[in-house]
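# step 3/5: fold
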Amino acid sequence: MKKALIVQGGWEGHRPAEVADILAELLLKNQFDVTISDTLDAFRTTNLLELDLIVPNWSMGTIAKNQLTPLLEAVQSGVGLAGMHGGMCDSFRVETEYQFMTGGQWVAHPGNDGVTYMVHMDGEPSPLTEGIGDFEVTSEQYYMHVDPGNRVLATTRFGAVVMPVIWTKMWGKGRVFYCSLGHSPDVVKMPQVLEIMKRGTRWAAEREG
């Protein structure tokens, strides 16, 4: 059985505890042994190298060097990283090395919550998105600064701008998966989003080689 750690907290507007519970249930159904922590000290006190997957769910906030360094080193050594929305890519805004690892950083959501937009499965072909198809969501539409080295799997549109929504990348030996959807528990529970997260977390937990 694979082992996963979810670390939840930060800005309460993203309802991190509720989202963590949804993701934990998803992982449990897929044969993960799941631990949820509500402190960033989990990155410092847990033997991260014994894990297969780390799921950060911590919007904004700050992180100490002795909390961040073990996380960076664990993923670089081969532990998978997977997350969504601001819980992974609007965390620790001054920590550029964290952003380098995750592959992106939120910068705006024009129109705020309640924007209806399309998610297009028009990125690189992948088993992670195969058969899901384009779908509509009403939520925050994330405009992000992204790593040009990401493998983009799905996108949305801001006028003529094609903006990544789902991507994968490598951080050293570690697989990294991200989905920008998930502003509220209702969005996380959408069938398409749950399926994407099921596939993405499972993929990230598989070590290279």
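# step 4/5: annotate
The chain has a mean pLDDT of 97.
# step 5/5: archive (pending)
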